[in-house]
Amino acid sequence: MYIARFIESVGVQAMKRTEIKRRPLSDTVLATLEPESKEYRELDGNGLYFRVKPDGNKSWQLRYKKADGKRSWLGIGTYPDLSGAGARKKAREIIKDISHGDNPIITKQERKRQNFERPLFYPLIQLKMGVLPSDLGSNSLLVV
Questions:
Q1: Is-contact 44 59, C-beta < 8 A?
Q2: Chain-wide mean pLDDT for the chain?
């Protein structure tokens, strides 16, 4: 998000996908890619694609081979919420899961469920009951 704002403030021109010269795609290229009349995907590397929709929305997708040999797409996240480096890291984790024989859609759902099950809010009364701030997870909000 910050990169997109910076690029706009500097005045960098929008880029057509035919002008891309290097892979993996840099955040500057990602932020300046123009939408076209039809949705398109640009290969970043190792099955990771950057998708641009006609309305200007941008996202990351991973193309992988299922156990039955058919290819499928898995959405990883939206840009600019997920940068290029973050998308590559997530893609490596998913590819690792696939190599262990896991279904990437099920593991993605499990990860989401685990993130939602983590406590995000601990009221003051729990502190009075003896729950120390060090006992709270890194994803928790401490209210005093």
A1: no
A2: 78
